[in-house]
Amino acid sequence: MTDTDHVLYDITEGIATITLNRPDRRNAMSVPMIERLGELLAHADEDPAVRVLVLTGAGRAFCAGGDVQQFDEDGGEGGGATEVDPDAVAEQLRHQELTVGRLHAFTKPTIAAIPGAAAGAGLGLALATDLRIGTPRTVMATAFAAVALSGDFGVAWLLDRLVGPARARELLLLNPRLDGQACLDLNLLTQLVSEDELTRMTTELATRLANGPALTLRYIKSNLREAPHQTLSESMMGEVPRHKECGLTDDHVEAARAFVEKRPPVFAH
């Protein structure tokens, strides 16, 4: 496998699928993987043919996070250095913005299909998506403390917002392994399906979103992304112009007509 194969990309009927592809390392991150993932996320967000994004992993894992085997070979994540390298800090920040940052700010709906382990930085990728589908084989773990690292790729920030500060502390400090049902109970998964239904159910959900009103879904995401940083009045000031703009679209006219005619709407593509 070459470095360019570490991430695979497909677009079918408006659904872009990005597959992390190092199954022999449980899709642990490599620099080529991170760089390519960043490129593909930017491309998919800007491509008008893409209406929804699916992120998944090859084989039986989603993403194990940092490549601990490589850390061991290098003498640690810092490569044996005795002081923090400012250039390394800047490069990692760039990588995190390219991936987790881009996923969180993605203007179109995003889905993580999680066939197995999502750990460490890989958990950050999963939690940055809008919706997450798993199976009984899904395992989520923060994993950082187990290898004496404090955490990166936005996991602390994302957990704090998804499960609250108390539970986030538990997950980061104690590093429990959460199975699929536990993830669902904590709202870390949107849906829990059988292992053999993961692909079908992911496609079904992605198709539903791809066939939805694109501008409306984009503006819903904008409202949700901005709301935690605003007062109620500020949030309403942001949402009303978007709501009114959606009210001028052909999609809105079609949806209202379909409601009256008691049929499913057919939105523009």
Helix content: 40-55%
CATH architecture of the largest domain: Alpha-Beta Complex
Count of helices?
A: 11
Instruction: Report on the biggest sheet.
Output: 6 strands, mixed
The rough form would be described as globular
The CATH homologous superfamily of the largest domain is termed: 2-enoyl-CoA Hydratase, Chain A, domain 1
What's the SSE pattern? EEHEHHEEHEEHHEHEHHHH
Low-pLDDT windows of residues: none
Biggest sheet strand order reads 1-2-3-4-6-9
User: Within the CATH hierarchy, at the fold level, what is the topology of the largest domain?
Assistant: 2-enoyl-CoA Hydratase, Chain A, domain 1
Tally the beta strands. 9
Radius of gyration over C-alpha positions, nearest whole angstrom: 20 Å
Reading off the top of the CATH hierarchy, the class of the largest domain is best stated as Alpha Beta
Number of domains: 2
Look at the helices and sheets and give the structural class: alpha/beta
End-to-end distance: 36 Å
Strand content: 5-15%
Q: pLDDT average, as an integer?
A: 94
InterPro entries: ClpP/crotonase-like_dom_sf, Enoyl-CoA_hydra/iso, Enoyl-CoA_hydra_C
Family: Belongs to the enoyl-CoA hydratase/isomerase family.
Keywords: Isomerase
Pfam family, one: ECH_1
Task: Explain what this protein looks like in three dimensions.
By secondary structure, the chain is an alpha/beta fold. It folds into two domains: 7-210, 2-enoyl-CoA Hydratase, Chain A, domain 1 (Alpha-Beta Complex), CATH 3.90.226; 213-261. The protein has helices at residues 31-46, 68-74, 86-105, 121-127, 155-163, 165-174, 180-185, 198-210, 214-226, 232-246, 250-261; strands at residues 7-12, 15-20, 52-57, 110-114, 117-119, 131-134, 139-141, 178-179, 191-192. The strands form two sheets. It has a six-stranded mixed β-sheet with strand order 1-2-3-4-6-9, sandwiched between helices. Strands 5-7-8 form a three-stranded mixed β-sheet. A hairpin with a 2-residue loop joins strand 1 (7-12) and strand 2 (15-20). Helix 1 (31-46) runs parallel beside helix 3 (86-105), helix 4 packs across helix 5 (155-163) and helix 5 (155-163) crosses helix 6 (165-174). The longest helix is centred in the middle third of the chain and has 20 residues, at 86-105. The protein is globular and about 65 Å long. The protein starts with 6 loop residues before the first strand and ends in an 8-residue tail after the last helix.
